[in-house]
Amino acid sequence: MTAPTRTSAGLIAAEEPVLAQNYHPLPVVVARAEGAWVEDVEGRRYLDMLAGYSALNFGHRHPVLIEAAHRQLDRLTLTSRAFHHDRLAEFAARLAALTGQDMVLPMNTGAEAVESGIKVARKWAYEVKGVPADRATIVVAADNFHGRTTTIVGFSTDETARSGFGPFTPGFRIVPYNDLAALRAAVDGTTAAVLIEPVQGEAGVVIPDDGYLAGVRELTRRAGCLFMADEIQSGLGRTGRTLAVEHESVVPDLVLLGKALGGGIVPVSAVVGRREVLGVLRPGEHGSTFGGNPLACAVGTAVIGLLETGEFQRRAAELGAVLRAGLAELTGKGVVGFRARGLWAGVDIDPALGTGREVGERLLREGILVKDTHGFTIRLAPPLTITAEELHNALGTLEKVLASTV
Ligand SMILES: Cc1ncc(COP(=O)(O)O)c(C=O)c1O
What is the Cβ-side half-sphere exposure of residue 342, based on CA atoms within 13 angstroms? Predict the structure, then answer.
C-alpha cells in the first residue's frame, strides 16, 4: 500500500475506502491549531468559528489546559474507579461548587452523561417518587439533540438519526419545545424527569421564549418530577453565563455537562445534581472504566479554574453583543434571520444564495470554518478567546460571501 500524499486531496481520498462514512466533513485536513486558528496540511490558516461544537470554548491548546495535561501525563493517567486517586475529590468538589449543585457523577462523552442522567432519573422515580416498577417516563422536546446511542436516538425526532436503528427503548414522551402547555399535558404520576436543552444547539441555536425555563422549573417542582437540563453544548461559558439556565435564574435537579469540560483535550462529561437525586446510586449500579480518570480530572479541574475567574463568561457576553450587532447588519443582505445567545448563533441564509453547506464551503475558501445545520442554517460558535477584531473580520467575510453570486 502506498502512503497517501500529504495534501488535503490526497489524504481525503485515502480516508474514503477505510473510514466509515458517518460524517460529511468540509474538505479541509487540519494538521495543527492554536487559539482560534487552525492550519491545514498545506499550511493554510483558518479562523475556527465552530470550536468543536463548543468542545473548544477555550480555544485550541489553551496554555493553562495543556500544561495541566502535561503535568498529569508525567505522573498518573488511569487507575479505573477500582481505586481512589488524588485528582478526583478536588474535581468533583469544584465542579459542584461551580454549578451550584451537591454531587457529581463523572463520565466521558456527552451521550454517556445523558444515558447516566436517564438512569439516575428512573432510579429516583422508583425509589423516591414511588413510580411502579418499569413504568417511569421521561418527557423530552421535539427537535432535541442529546447524542447518538440507541436509547437517545430513539427519542429523537430527526429521521436521519433514527432510521434503521430500532427497536428503541420505551418510556419517552415527546412534546414541542418551548410549549409549557404541551409539557403540562404530558407530565403525570409516572414522570421521572423532563429532559431539555436550555438552548437547542443542533436544531439551529433555538432559544426558548423568556420564562420557558423558569416555567419548566415551576412545572416540574409542582408535578414532583425532576428537571434535567442538557447543558453539554450550552454550558460552561458559551451563552455568557456558566450555565444557560442562569439566564432565568433556574437551578435544575440534574445538569448534564460535557464538551468544554474536557478543554478540547480529552472527553470529560458529568452529571451534576442534588444529593437527594444523585444519591440514589450505590456501588456497582453504574460506572465507566474511564469516567473520572486522573487525566480527565486534571484537565477538567483546570477548565473549572478558567471558568471560576468569570473571564470567559464575560467575554462570551461582550463579544456576543458584537456578534448580534454584526448579524443584525447582515439581515436583509443574505441573512433572513438569526438567533443568538452569548457567543453562539444560528444564522438562516437566504435559500436563493445556496444551502448552509454551500455557504460553509465558500467560507472555507475564504479561511473561515463553520458548520451548517438543517439545510439553510449555519452555526457560529467561535472559541470564547476570539478577539473582537477576529470576530469583525469573520462577519466581514460572511458579508462578502453572501454578497458574491455563486
Ligand atoms: C446538547 C447535546 N447533548 C449531547 C450531545 C452528545 O455529546 P457527545 O457527542 O459527546 O456524545 C451533544 C453533542 O453535540 C449535544 O449538543
Answer: 34
> pLDDT (tens digit, 9 = 90+) per residue, 229-255?
999 999 999 999 999 999 999 999 999
Fold of 76-308: Aspartate Aminotransferase; domain 2 (3.40.640)
The residue type of 30 is V
pLDDT of 146 reads 98
| pLDDT beyond 80 at 4 | no
Contact 248, 213 (CB under 8 A): yes
Is 119 a catalytic site residue?
no
Domains in the chain: boundaries: 8-61+311-404, 76-308
- Residue 211: burial class (beta carbons within 10 Å; 0-12, 13-18, 19+): exposed
Position 174 scores a pLDDT of 98
Told to judge if 210 belongs to the known catalytic residues of this protein, a careful annotator would answer no
Q: How many CB atoms lie within 10 A of CB 173?
A: 18
Q: Ligand 1 centroid vs 106 CA: distance in angstroms?
A: 15
* 233 pocket-lining for ligand 1 (C-beta < 6 Å): yes
Given the residues 48, 143, 259, 338, select the one marked as catalytic.
Answer: 259
- CATH fourth-level superfamily of 8-61+311-404: Aspartate Aminotransferase, domain 1 (3.90.1150.10)
Domains 8-61+311-404 and 76-308 share a fold: no
Ligand 1 binding pocket mutation candidate from 22, 107, 146, 234 (most atoms within 8 A of CB): 146
